[in-house]
Amino acid sequence: MIKNRFVFLGIAGLIVAGALFAFVSRSSPTVQVVHPTIGPAVQAVYATGTVEATVMLPIAARSAARLVELNVDEGAEVTKDQVMARLEDNDLQETLAELEAREQFAHSNYERKSTLLKEGAVTRQIYDQSKSDWEAAKAAVARAQAQANFMKLVAPADGRVIRRDGEIGQLIPANQPVFWISCCAPLRVTAEVDEEDIAIVKPGQKVLIRADAFPGKIFNGTVQSITPKGDPIARSYRVRVHFDEETPLLIGMTAETNIIIRERKDAMLVPSSAVVQNKVWRVENDTLVERTVEIGARDADQVEIIEGLTAEDTVVLTPEESFTAGDPVRARVVKAPPPEKKSARNKRGD
Prior knowledge:
This protein is of the alpha+beta class. The protein is built from three helices and 21 strands. Helix content is 23%, strand content 38%.
């Protein structure tokens, strides 16, 4: 009888434990969990910029005058020393002709005095004076010739005319550019990078460039330089990006840039909804466990986990504020939502 009593008590205990487990299972909330996935992650800094010429030269006259001749227009290719335009110079040409006549007379007088000096008919002082007059006349001609040449707008190097400001008959003020030419180097993008990100931007980093004028196309570039002085109002720094190849983009176009800071092909990724303030909730033995993680690149869809998880962990897809460590839950494994892009990026990435 005693033996049967213990058997009865054991069966009763199992029944109570089973009932308790069933009650707990029914009362435990069900949470959706995912396993981390392995895929590419790119940490990038996003910035907008403008396409511009690397070297842009202004061509202007030194004196005010009317524009009387135009030989090239916007978009034209020019060669070094090519006359691009000419300003009115009639008065200068007349002055030059007068000075050339005086120079010829002074030269003739000098030659006569030189002959007379050899014959002893004039003194050395008279000879020296004639030589000085001739040299002064030559200098005056050279100065007038230079001033006349300044009325010709000449290309200082091979390049392309990217802008023209002036029409024939228009009075052009002194030192006002009539032409702008780009030369000597390919185009570049000048981008404004937020001061929060500038510390991780370095020369030589790869850059992906997009423009609305060419949808779906990506152009490759490289960070060339970073301005050492930022804009205290915009709180940004200028970053110069050179194109790695020929580009159909035009000067003045707006460009979107993604400066690649770090790339990893086998990064551990979890949905962005699973990470809240660098913490995730794992489910271990039907119990919630909070875990602090180190994150890397991220975008609206995915977050790169650098440290704190393994590929076998189950992570709550959408944690709730009411979660408490140790709470019992029932885990339902689901597939992570597919990302809209192929890689995770940092918060300023595109």
